[in-house]
Design goal:
mainly alpha, two-stranded antiparallel ribbon, about 70% helix, cell membrane, LapA_dom
């Protein structure tokens, strides 16, 4: 499975390298009205990919923090339950409950 994954990754890398090699044309990018910049197409594609990845990471940051908080809370709960269970196993039974009750009934012969 690891080999298959590696082959797929290498094929995707090769496709992106070929894409980069064929998209070296200069394009005009208008970022504000009246303002434009001339850059190679692959550079603009890479820049917008990175910007999208950064926005994606920032959008997941809140969820990451809430999941981390929940994970810590559940870990603490498991530790607490394990400690309580361990204490219950170590507590001895009361001394008077361990001795049998003597039979006081008269014995018939």
């Amino acid at each position: 499975m690891k080999l298959f994954s590696l082959i797929i990754k290498l094929l995707l890398l090769a496709v992106f390298i070929v894409l980069a090699a064929f998209n070296t044309h200069i394009v005009n990018f208008s970022y504000l009205p009246g303002s434009e910049i001339s850059l190679p197409l692959i550079l603009l594609l890479l820049a917008f990919f990175v910007i999208g990845a950064v926005f994606g990471v920032f959008s997941m940051f809140g969820r990451l923090l809430s999941l981390r908080h929940e994970n810590n809370r559940l870990r603490n709960e498991v530790r607490k339950n394990a400690r309580i269970a361990q204490e219950q196993l170590q507590t001895p039974a009361p001394a008077d409950a361990a001795q049998p009750v003597p039979d006081t009934a008269p014995v018939k012969e």
